[in-house]
Write a structure and sequence with these properties.
- The protein has 1 helix and 13 strands.
- The chain is mainly beta and 182 residues long.
- It has a single domain, classed as Trefoil (Acidic Fibroblast Growth Factor, subunit A) (Trefoil), CATH 2.80.10.50.
- A hairpin with a 5-residue loop joins strand 4 and strand 5.
């Protein structure tokens, strides 16, 4: 499994149906939607940031990564995927490095039936993972925290293309110097 770098945008494609990806919804939840391979749909793009879940007294109880969605929902640009509990739909909440929300996650390599990807699990219980609730990978299936290890809890990470800087773009478009006879 290639490392997922902090702040590098990526999409999470369904291992059951790789034409569909997790997308943040207007209502604050997430569901499977048709994948936009051009990466022009911000709701389908995530970046990782370090995350500490804390008690109300600010004692760290879990450390992991936050999945920050690049969709601007309700005027909030950076929302992180948050658990409401087992067998509950995952929701988007405002990202904060130290949070009492359950938005720190653990990433593990996973393989089921010749499909290799990642499983995103809760630090509270490693058998709880992100799951496409219907199990078939169809559009509009909501994303829940569930306790199974089927293919619908495996995600294929697809990175957004790296953007070139202006100087890299101009260098790539300039004609090469003509060869001169010596």
């Amino acid at each position: 499994m290639a490392p997922i770098l902090l702040d590098r945008p990526f999409a999470l494609r369904s291992a059951v149906n790789d034409r569909h990806v997790i997308q943040a919804d207007q209502g604050g939840g997430m569901s499977l939607q048709r994948w936009d391979p051009s990466f022009r749909t911000p709701g389908q793009q995530f970046v990782l940031r370090m995350q500490n879940n804390t008690t109300n007294g600010f004692n760290v109880i879990h450390t992991g990564v936050a999945f920050i969605n690049l969709f601007n929902s309700n005027g909030i640009l950076f929302n992180s995927v948050t658990s409401q509990g087992l067998k509950q739909q995952l929701v988007m909440q405002r990202y904060d490095t130290y949070s009492v929300d359950k938005d720190a996650w653990i990433i593990a390599e996973a393989k089921v039936n010749n499909v290799t990807g990642i499983r995103i699990t809760s630090p509270q219980n490693s058998s709880w993972s992100w799951n496409a609730w219907g199990g078939t990978g169809e559009i509009n299936e909501p994303i829940y925290l569930n306790d199974d290890t089927n293919n619908n809890s495996i995600w294929i990470v697809t990175f957004a293309p790296l953007l070139q800087t202006e100087s890299e773009q101009s260098n790539a478009t300039e004609a090469p110097e003509p060869a001169t006879a010596g």
